[in-house]
Write a structure and sequence with these properties.
Number of domains: 2
CATH class of the largest domain: Alpha Beta
Order of helices and strands: EHEHEHEEHEHEEEHEHEHEHEEEHH
Largest sheet: 7 strands, mixed
Bound molecules: nicotinamide-adenine-dinucleotide
CATH topology of the largest domain: Rossmann fold
């Protein structure tokens, strides 16, 4: 049973979203936080990611039912926004993804659940260790190349054999942020000739630093550096000019990984049907922006679509396919965040004027009193 000291009680719930195998906190981080936080873990929460109940128990956590956990924990950590939040007790605190979905805000306000939305984490140096978007994007970039490689009918490296030689595959990442750069690095290790493109001027040097060629589409484009390292949205005319200028560059590629995103907006359309018709049959596109509308016109979330011999993959949760390491990184981010949030009294310190907690809270009104978990039954 959890201790009756003043330590914060945190709950780790099992993910219920279809296909989600990650877990928000892994046993080694439970152990590392042992002196400051008492952990309750829902039975089986870590199993899909390869972390057993026994490993959590050995790390000092108490395994329990979801109901008991929700009744006792002062803070719940999760990967995805839990679908049963409607039935939670009032004044709970939830730390999870999904803060860009406005529909959820109403549900949360109704239940008076305070949500620390991980997408709202500010991109400042102090918060880097807590940045789940970056850690999961790195895993997604890696996994996108593996998915593309399995779908391609050509090999990545140059092969010289007695039967003849094979040229290395040509790969490009459109959008050279965290996911795109990791995709380039992964494809390069597999032997592909790599390329990258981004509308942020700063990305050029980063593309070159991972050994890829930066592609310069033949059109005049203003650099679209937004705030916090993100890109700003282009005008409709700029987007159309970019699409037409990119098309000839893409025609010579075998693998195209698209990762272009503009926070809070539909993903920019980089590959329309005209470009698709000009690609070489056998080309594979892995569109990591599938969930926010797709960078390719033919993308369907979580489907593989074939158009004129081009296969377009729209995976929406690649980190879950590498659940053990994706959870390891997610959990490390949350451990760092919890350490930041803990006050001198051992409880969560939620203040809107903190440079990290403030943005995570967004526009939410804080509960009148800090959430105090009910007494633990004997
Ligand atoms: P993201 O997932 O929002 O977008 C992916 C990429 O798409 C970005 O590089 C963006 O410039 C690009 N893009 C947007 N519109 C495009 C278009 N029309 N054509 C081509 N590319 C387009 O961004 P991200 O990968 O999370 O991060 C972007 C940058 O922020 C990176 O340079 C990263 O290193 C930096 N970053 C900084 C911090 C920090 O300082 N704490 C944390 C995370 C990331």
């Amino acid at each position: 049973m959890p201790s009756s000291s003043n330590k914060l009680i945190a709950g780790v719930i099992a993910e219920r979203a279809h296909g989600e195998r990650r877990v928000a906190m892994i046993p080694s981080d439970v152990k590392r936080l042992e002196s400051k936080v008492t952990f309750l873990v829902e039975h089986g929460a870590g199993h899909p990611a390869g972390f057993t109940d026994e490993a959590y128990a050995l790390a000092g956590a108490t395994l329990t039912s979801r109901e008991a956990l929700l009744a006792q924990a002062g803070v719940i950590v999760a990967v995805r926004f839990p679908e049963d939040v409607d039935s939670w007790r009032e004044n709970g605190v939830l730390i999870s993804l999904a803060s860009r979905d406005p529909a959820l805000e109403a549900t949360l306000a109704k239940r008076r659940v305070t949500h620390l939305g991980l997408e709202r984490l500010p991109r400042i140096a102090r918060a880097q260790s807590m940045d789940v978007l970056s850690s999961q994007a790195a895993i997604a970039g890696y996994a996108a190349v593996l998915e593309g490689a399995r779908s391609l009918d050509v090999v990545f490296p140059m092969l010289t054999t007695a039967a003849g030689s094979i040229k290395p595959a040509r790969m490009i990442a459109l959008g050279a942020g965290v996911a795109g750069l990791q995709a380039i690095a992964t494809a390069r290790r597999l032997g592909a000739v790599t390329h990258g493109f981004d509308i942020r001027e700063a990305a050029r040097e980063q593309v070159e630093s991972v050994g890829a060629k930066f592609v310069h589409p033949r059109t005049q484009l203003a650099s679209a550096d937004g705030s916090g390292g993100y890109a700003a949205e282009q005008t409709a005319d700029e987007q159309e000019r970019l699409r037409r200028a990119l098309a000839p560059e893409l025609a010579s590629m075998q693998l195209i990984i698209t990762t272009a995103q503009v926070p809070g907006r539909r993903a920019p359309l980089l590959i329309d049907k005209v470009t698709l018709s000009a690609l070489t049959p056998g080309t594979v596109i892995v569109d990591l922006a599938a969930e926010s509308g797709g960078n390719c016109e033919a993308t369907r979330p979580d489907e593989i679509v074939e158009v004129a011999g081009v296969r377009i993959h729209g995976p929406t949760n690649l980190p879950s396919t590498v659940a053990t390491d994706a959870s390891r990184l997610f959990s490390g981010n949350l451990r760092s965040l919890l350490e930041h949030l803990l006050g001198a009294d051992g409880q969560l310190r939620l203040t809107t004027d903190d440079p990290i907690t403030g943005p995570l809270l967004g526009n939410q009104a804080l509960p009148q009193t800090a959430p105090i978990p009910p007494p633990i039954p004997a």
